[in-house]
Amino acid sequence: AQKVTQAQTEISVVEKEDVTLDCVYETRDTTYYLFWYKQPPSGELVFLIRRNSFDEQNEISGRYSWNFQKSTSSFNFTITASQVVDSAVYFCALRFKAAGNKLTFGGGTRVLVKP
Amino acid sequence: GAVVSQHPSWVICKSGTSVKIECRSLDFQATTMFWYRQFPKQSLMLMATSNEGSKATYEQGVEKDKFLINHASLTLSTLTVTSAHPEDSSFYICSGRTGVRYEQYFGPGTRLTVT
């Protein structure tokens, strides 16, 4: 069965600290996609990144970076030098063909960045 | 990214009445649309998937007669909550996708409160 686990329900940091969000997934498919979304207090989901299962290269986008480790089925997300505007709920999600290409979301991690 | 709008952004209705939520893809053709509900401090739960011109496919446990979904065109899908009850109060989010190989774009959500 497919499953996405975000073990951290809430993380609180002080501005400028780094914060890493964990995401562990389960799937039997060899071809799948992993995503991260940000949901600020306004509620609208903001797409951050998509990674397919054949691309294990880590990625950096500004203060955001992602570490995909297929061997441990993890797709972790790091915010470097956090800012108050990073306060939001972050969701990791998985999509693969056997599940009808529907997104399966993790439980989300609430990040609170204090000034 | 592509834009999805939802209307209304929030609605309050009385118990027993029906309410319709519209979801529009503004700059792309959404062959597939998804409807999610999200309770406070919880993750997104997929309610149903609809392909343009076809009947929606509902997830297990979602009452199809209560949550009517219509996907009449490539840019419009509607969710009607019939005979609403207080337990239907939630945040409803729609999402559209052009094709399996493409991203899924989310609307800003509709907050429904049933009194």
Structure described in brief:
In chain A, strands 2, 5, 6, 10, 11 and 12 form a 6-stranded mixed beta sheet that branches. In chain A, strands 3-9-8-7 form a 4-stranded antiparallel beta sheet, with no helix packed on it.
What can you tell me about this protein's structure?
Chain A is mainly beta and 115 residues long. In chain A, 0% of the residues lie in helices and 54% in strands. In chain A, strands 2, 5, 6, 10, 11 and 12 form a six-stranded mixed sheet that branches. In chain A, strands 3-9-8-7 form a four-stranded antiparallel sheet, with no helix packed on it. Chain A has a two-stranded antiparallel ribbon with strand order 1-4. Chain B is mainly β. Chain B starts with a strand and ends with a strand. The mean pLDDT of chain B is 93. The chains are: A mainly beta (115), B mainly beta (115). Chains A and B meet through loops of A and β10 of B.
List keywords for this structure.
heterodimer, A: 115 residues, mainly beta, six-stranded mixed sheet, four-stranded antiparallel sheet, 54% strand, B: 115 residues, seven-stranded mixed sheet, 0% helix
List the helices and strands and how they pair.
The complex is a heterodimer of chains A (115) and B (115).
Chain A: E1 3-5, E2 10-14, E3 19-21, E4 24-26, E5 32-39, E6 46-52, E7 59-61, E8 64-69, E9 74-79, E10 88-96, E11 103-105, E12 109-114
Parallel strand pairs in A: 2-12
Antiparallel strand pairs in A: 1-4, 3-9, 5-6, 5-10, 7-8, 8-9, 10-11, 10-12
Chain B: E1 4-7, E2 10-13, E3 19-25, E4 32-38, E5 45-51, E6 57-58, E7 67-73, E8 76-81, E9 90-97, E10 104-106, E11 110-114
Specify the biggest β-sheet of chain A: 6 strands, mixed
In N-to-C order, the SSE pattern of chain A is EEEEEEEEEEEE
Helix content of chain B: under 10%
Strand tally of chain B is: 11
Mean pLDDT rating of chain B = 93
Number of H/I helices of chain A? 0
